[in-house]
């Protein structure tokens, strides 16, 4: 969000006038010639905060706020609950064991907590400048904001086909027509309905996602209660207690690496990476700020409360799954090399024909609760994955629209055709939604061949690699956010040291701080260093292999590439683990090369939050909504 988004005429009209979002003219993004951009950089421009708020005002006029506090609070909790918690727990158990997976999710939860409270402090100070992307432009460098925006768009876009294909694969066990054709139909229907919901405007999306997110929250709470019931002896296996922790054991020695303690740690480290992928999206409240009613009050409130519910839901689900399912159960997925798995208490070699399943469905089968509950959970998991995909379309389309408004994406993505649906005025960035829909078509790459469903096509391999890159992209987003906060924090400390009256002159800057903010910058440094370490150690396993040749291309005389049943082909695994890093750096340095942007010096950071919307506190009407408001 460089100052090039303002035309020279607009700037001249502002000279000598008060600088507020109300009197800042809307940017003329069409004036992008190199000569004009060079001239604009030499001209006097309004303060940076007011420019960003003027841009945010323009976005608010194009997309009127229609998402209320109850929407954003519940969506920020349930909107990110998808296959990561219901299905992904399977990989966590078989890689680290019940205690190892629990510790890994506790560590990841603490990282997420540190990220969320840091973002919450900044968003509470400036809720109307574009969330983490706008804050990065103001306190670090516009190049970092550019890279964070495109990285966030890529992440939410590629997760979309992953969620849709997961929902379709969950439904593949239902009887009926040919498996491949059934997957095609499932992906088509799910993608079509998700796109249709997003075409009806933010209010319809908010209502639909509100009830779906509430359903997912109730579902995960019900699964935790059901798991405890099974563990306490209501299933046909009788009392289970902590026996799964004793046998096969609390930890899994990853690939029998010696010494065993080191193997246990590597299994835990592998699950931390998986958990980061599952947790990503907790900052959705800040992303949706442009279409949130009264963001000054509702966005900080949602950000402050969301971490504990996400933390408890995920950690609670992993704890419950570890009580009721053995970590070496064959149905959790392919075991590690040279290891047997267990089926109905009997150790046996792994059978590739056994379909991987959720630990909760496995527990229901073993408890003898019948097929009705199993089918209900299967459909519920598919609905949860589809709901997460619907949220991904919303987020990716709004990221594209925001980037286009900043002049960092094609201009046609800014168009928001207007029409009426009953009494509701609908304005949607349809071209951005269309681009998100086109990316969602990648979900069809996961459909197996109709002639031989066991054959994995090259396209399917490419799709897996693209999906695996989202984990590194997620961590890059967190790293960028924490770097922004650290600059924000030390810039404020510099002002406090140089100006004894800084606190008295900026009371709003300190009014939203809570007791845990007194610990800063320790939580921010903890999250920043942890994310950097996890990101660079993401593909650690490929560096330990010396028994296979590294090949980046195939020749006709080459044999088949070495493929690990658990990790996949080694070279593509390495590339997909680290490719987002050079792309992220390319976005930063490419922007700096083109627009000559400079890092904001600490002494030049803005500490005037401009015109922030007035907080309007409204109490919900009705007994049901009062309960929802109290919980969320």
Automatic annotation (TrEMBL):
Stored InterPro entries: AA-permease/SLC12A_dom, Amino_acid_permease_CS, APC_YAT
One protein family per Pfam: AA_permease
Cell compartment(s), UniProt: Membrane
Entry annotated with the keyword Zinc: no
PROSITE patterns reported in the protein's UniProt record: AMINO_ACID_PERMEASE_1 (PS00218)
PANTHER family from the UniProt entry: AAT FAMILY AMINO ACID TRANSPORTER, AMINO ACID PERMEASE
Region (Disordered) location: 1-44
Origin superkingdom: Eukaryota
GO cellular-component term (any): membrane
Positions of transmembrane segments: 72-90, 102-126, 183-204, 210-230, 265-286, 306-325, 428-445, 465-486, 523-543, 575-595
KW Membrane (keyword) present: yes
The Amino acid permease/ SLC12A domain, residue ranges: 71-598
Molecular function (Gene Ontology), one example: amino acid transmembrane transporter activity
Ranges of biased composition (kind: Polar residues): 7-22
Organism: Sistotremastrum suecicum HHB10207 ss-3
Topological category with respect to the lipid bilayer: Multi-pass membrane protein
Record key words, sorted: Amino-acid transport, Membrane, Transmembrane, Transmembrane helix, Transport
Listed name of the protein: Amino acid permease/ SLC12A domain-containing protein
